[in-house]
Amino acid sequence: MPELAELRLTADYINQEGNGRIFTKIKKNPVHKGADIFEEIDFPFVLSAESRGKELRLEITSVPTNAPDKKVYHLMMGMGMAGHFNWVPPGTISKHSHLKFVSEDGTLDFVDVRRFGNWKWGNWNKDRGPDPTVQFQDFVRNIKDNLHKKDFDKPIHEVLMNQRWFNGIGNYLRAEILYRVDVDPFISAREALTKHSELYSLCREIPSKAYLLGGGELKDWKNPFQFETLEDVKMGWREFMQCYGVTGMATIIDKGGRRFWYDPKWNK
Question: In sequence order, which ranges of 52-170 are alpha helices (DSSP H)?
């Protein structure tokens, strides 16, 4: 599933392809189970995107954008396991496309092979914490102000996946963060965060590094900018991954059903 770095790259791509373009409608593929909620978008609009942790928000603004009666809609995208956006020129077939943002010179398509993606009108989820990369002080404050809560009685490897506190941190990021801190992943989150304050800064630094390297092309997700064609980026990614998927590391299936990778020295 795309994590913080991958969602930011997706937003970058949407902003790149949407820049300077006017769209006229949104078409849903009838085979997708998602709701067809776009009848009210019957006006030309511009499109922009922003990510925050594991959330992606599209902003649809009627043109002209400086009109006093302009319309602004926010579409929250759930990317599923493999969802991504792709610019499609006219006359090109786009397989597994489930939403099309239509413009005069092509479409910006939401492509989702596994059909786990979803969308809805709305805004940022109030139950998710601040983004540790762009809202770092709020991120730290949100955790420190709540360290007394029962959530932090749980092992740090479990709590790092809790989006209320660690918005954007997912499976590969938690493995890399905990490995670099060199902390026992089975102690309580409260103890880990108290004794190893560098955990906070690594929740900013590791996702930021993953973003600069073009995201984690793990399983089904692919970077929309096609960074995989750059050998130096691929080499940088291999050096970045010190724990997740690395031969010799230990693994368990956590309580959320995800495989957690960690240093085997912490086995009791």
Answer: 136-144, 156-159
